[in-house]
Design a protein that fits this description.
The chain is an alpha+beta fold. It has seven helices and nine strands, in the order H-H-H-H-H-H-E-E-H-E-E-E-E-E-E-E.
Length: about 220
């Protein structure tokens, strides 16, 4: 996959005609993507690709996300597989890796995913169970960061073996590492050590699904 800097340069090239020959700065790209300059600078430093914003940008410009991220043309993808792999993306829903988030907006769009990600999501047979949502907050850093797009398998809700899940509590929608205790209660764990572990009864938790990927494997 291209680096964050390479993607930024591609975006500058795409929108160059809109600037009438004027120099395009990073702050202009941040504005185009709807990212604050502070968050943009952090992403640039950490080489963190803002998948959600790029998906919206590609949809607006009618550009293939595969081309922007990998330099793959749609024609080459069709020639290689003659198939498209699609999952539902809820762009307006954010699960918090911090202080709680949710949305009543259930609008979604179908997004195409690269073939190499299909196996990371559990194989083609699991795609019907997969939904993509956004991450907000920092409590799961470095595993997840603000604006990451994560893939959730809604068919996997068993907490017996633990793992990272999207859950809903009375405080909102969260992405957390979950571990069952011997007494039947559940530890809600943040990977960022700044945040303390919360313990709840399982009846206080609605398990939405297991987080299976972030355009890459999840530990």
């Amino acid at each position: 996959m291209k680096s964050f800097l390479d993607i930024v340069e591609e975006i500058k090239s795409i929108v160059s005609t809109e600037f009438n020959g004027k120099k395009i700065y990073d702050k202009d790209v941040a504005d185009i993507l709807g990212i604050s300059q502070m968050n943009f600078a952090t992403m640039k430093k950490r080489n963190k690709v803002p998948f959600g914003e790029l998906l919206d940008f590609c949809a607006l410009k009618s550009i293939s996300i595969n081309w922007l991220l990998y330099g793959q043309s749609p024609e080459s993808l069709v020639a290689a597989t003659n198939r498209f792999f699609m999952v539902r993306y809820f762009g307006q829903i954010s699960a918090s890796a911090g202080g709680g988030a949710d949305s009543d907006d259930v609008e979604n769009q179908m997004i195409q995913i690269p073939q190499e990600f299909v196996m990371m999501l559990g194989g083609e047979r699991e795609l019907k169970n997969i939904e993509a949502i956004n991450v907000t907050g920092d409590s799961m850093e470095p595993t997840f960061s603000y604006n990451d797009v994560v893939f959730v398998n809604r068919a996997k809700t068993d907490l017996a073996r633990g793992g990272i899940f999207t859950i809903r509590t009375e405080a909102g929608l969260f992405i957390k590492r979950v571990q069952k205790r011997l007494d039947g209660r559940v530890d809600i764990i943040s990977d960022n050590p700044v945040y303390s572990t919360q313990t709840l009864h399982q009846s206080e938790i609605e398990v939405i699904g297991r987080v299976v990927s972030r355009f890459g494997s999840v530990d």
